[in-house]
Amino acid sequence: MVVESYRTEYGNVLADSLTPGQLSSSNLFDVSGQVAVVTGGGTGIGLITALGLAENGAKVYITGRRADVVNAAAEKYSPKKGTGSIVPVVGDMSSKEGVDALRAVLVKNEKYVNVLINNHAIQVIGLKFHETDGTAEGISAAVDAVESFEKWTEMYRINCASYFFTTMALLPLLAKAEVGGKKQPGSVINVSSISGLCNDSQGGQFNYNASKAAVNHLSSMMAAEFAERELGVRVNTICPGHFPSGINTTNLDESPETKYQFARKEMEIPFGRPGVAPEYVRLVLSIATNTYQTGTLIPIDGGYMTKH
């Protein structure tokens, strides 16, 4: 009975079970009419993500601490045609008050949330190796001079703990997700970083890299626990490499040759360039719509991790 029900709802892997157009890209990656939330969605990768979802028909709530930034982003980038839209919500997701404010807006206006993308983050390099003499004494002295426990815990609070609290606050809405009147698993996408995968500190980013590694494991635990309890909520992780954004920018001249050499040698990207918006959004749409995917961790980095 279970097998027959499965076949009725999903078909099977045989070609003769498919309906015409079922494998077209417009069907495979369709988010039209879905409700999405992108934290830190007013700038950088977050804004790219929101725009990609909205242009494909989703209603996207973006959050940010600065009202002028999120309001301007929604005004400028909301699609002028189609069903998609961008809705600004002012709130600091690194605080319970900010999370509660977002939840209140969503509960008031939506029956469910299809996609939550935890994207907000900060990057503060705590120890710059190149500014020390490289000796044990020099490194220790540099930490004594500039580091504090508070700075380290701030990184975890914003980059990791806030993902946990935001996801748990919206879990009931994600568990109610549906598409076209049919139940469909809610999707959580946590934006981590290749910095959370590297064995080296990338020049002294111990606190940032450790916070991103924590995000990776947090995501795995949530994916496992939600699946075990049959909550109908998927959790996956994107680990971007170098995509120019509010956190991650590169000041280069306009020479393509110089940019290529810098990317290959200084940034150690085998592909010789940073990533671009369409490449990132393709991955987001794929994870958001693949209802058989959970617990995965996907680098998108131009080959960076092949060297690290």
Structure explained in plain terms:
One of its GO terms (molecular function) is oxidoreductase activity. Belongs to the short-chain dehydrogenases/reductases (SDR) family. There is one protein chain. The chain is an alpha/beta fold. The chain has ten helices and nine strands. It has one domain (30-306): Rossmann fold (3-Layer(aba) Sandwich), CATH 3.40.50. The strands form two sheets. The protein has a seven-stranded parallel sheet, sandwiched between helices. Strands 5-6 form a two-stranded antiparallel sheet. Strand 2, helix 4 (67-77) and strand 3 (85-90) form a beta-alpha-beta unit. Helix 5 (96-109) packs parallel to helix 7 and helix 7 (149-175) runs parallel beside helix 8. The N and C termini lie far apart (49 Å). 37% of the residues are buried.
**What class do helices, strands and sheet pairing give?**
alpha/beta
What is the end-to-end distance?
49 Å
Total domain modules = 1
Strand order of the largest sheet: 3-2-1-4-7-8-9
Tell me, briefly, the overall form: globular
Poorly predicted ranges: 247-254
Number of helices: 10
Write down the CATH class: Alpha Beta
The fraction of residues assigned to DSSP E strands is: 5-15%
Overall mean confidence score, pLDDT: 87
CATH topology: Rossmann fold
Q: Based on DSSP secondary structure assignment, what is the total number of beta strands? A: 9
Q: What's the SSE pattern?
A: HHEHEHEHEHHEEEHEHHE
Alpha carbon gyration radius: 21 Å
CATH superfamily: NAD(P)-binding Rossmann-like Domain
Largest sheet: 7 strands, parallel
Helix content: 40-55%
The CATH architecture is: 3-Layer(aba) Sandwich
